[in-house]
Design goal:
The chain contains 12 helices and 9 strands. By secondary structure, the chain is an alpha/beta fold. It has 2 domains: 61 residues, no CATH class; 190 residues, Rossmann fold (3-Layer(aba) Sandwich). The strands form 2 sheets. The chain has a 6-stranded parallel beta sheet with strand order 5-4-6-7-9-8, sandwiched between helices. α5 links the parallel β4 and β5.
Length: 290
Amino acid sequence: GNYIPNTLEGELADLCDLVVLVGADSLMTHVPWGFNMPAIELVSRPEYRTTVLEPEVRIDGSLSESLKALDGSKCKGVSIEEIDSAKQNVLKYFERPSEATFAIQDIVATCRAVLPKDGVVVSETGAFVRMLEHLWEFDRFGDFLGTSGGRTMGLMIPAALGAKMAAPDVPMIGIGADGSTLMRLGELEVFARMNVAMPLVIVNDQALGTMKSRQVSRGMPEFGLDLSPVDFASVARASGINGVAVSTPEEFRLALADAMSANVATLIDARIDQQPYWDNFALSIGAIPE
């Protein structure tokens, strides 16, 4: 998508005089391109619309072959030190809210501490994913299975099921959201039937939190995005897997430790503090002042 404030990409854009878009497609062309600098687009298929209004160069075809053409570039680029500095500048927008009892940062930090280095995280869209993407770095292909520009709801549960069945000996944690879980409740029974064991962490703010936060930041009246309280832990147990509800960091830490060693899947209904969660998301996308 297009770079927005309070992101690493947006921070790095200030250091650059050229943008190279690799794998540009039509997904975000409804949003006007917001950068006044030259751009090169490497596009896999000619029918994809251009992202930049007027790219200096557009190359259609194999992305790997197009990238090889850049191998001989003598441009020094941005240094590792500058990138590290940009990361630190951005992380202030993702700090744990001090007023929260239980925050998404607690979930990310605990999962990161518990999952072995050869483990895999499976995720989906949700207000939480902004924190996950910035607070947990993955440097090995396949360590993170999630959704990027498409921001797909309802992905984590079936994706985790397939991933774990394909690699049963690989430690995995699924991290999803309550709205998406409501779309996939029937899949919980499949975890029981197929004897698939892994933690399924459900970030529960009793709302479609991304859009609820955006309604407020755009000055719109709050409407239609609050969810009825759902006892996901009970639903999980009724489906034949473990289910536990938690509302503090310590409860979550204990539940996750148990889930990692259990011989059946465990759904952890993580009931985070609502308002700090929504405000934190808005800050992370530059929708509210610091």
